[in-house]
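Deliverable D4.2, example record:
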Amino acid sequence: MTDRPHPTVVHRYAIPLDVALEQLIGREATDAEGWNASVQGDDLVIEVVAPAYVGRTVEVPDDFDVEKLCDAILAGEFKLSPAEPRPPPSGETQKINTPEKPKGGPLAQRAGIMCGERGFWTFITKRFGVAIASADEAAVWLKARCGVESRVEFDHIEAKAANFREIDKLYRLWLEGFD
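Output generated by the structure prediction step:
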């Protein structure tokens, strides 16, 4: 038996069970008496246990005529009252349903650093003939040159990343003395 180091917990997520089940399975699952959850291989297995009956019970007399009721329903003479509307999703559910805004990664970070470097401003002026006097102007130029609205796109759209990498490469070569 080999001693393995215990894994280090990096992130821990606590999601209310009813919210998680509603998102994974559907709202019906939240009406259950209980759930059994387990991980089997690469699958999360959730067993819904005995759905709870939330409604009215009615004593049906022995002489009740089901066919007469069905005929009345088909003829439109019998109508059920409308179901009560369900409450809107909680704030937690809305947060889960809202797609996360893409986050910047290493390329976006590198672009931000470059735009703050005075050497990059000089490079843009000498290489592309555009006078740059601030980090904001450099950022505007870089985004326009690469065809992005945000540096974040460098980490999520490969064609935009290629545009940025080419400028970054030329800038690095220029810093080393190669024109």
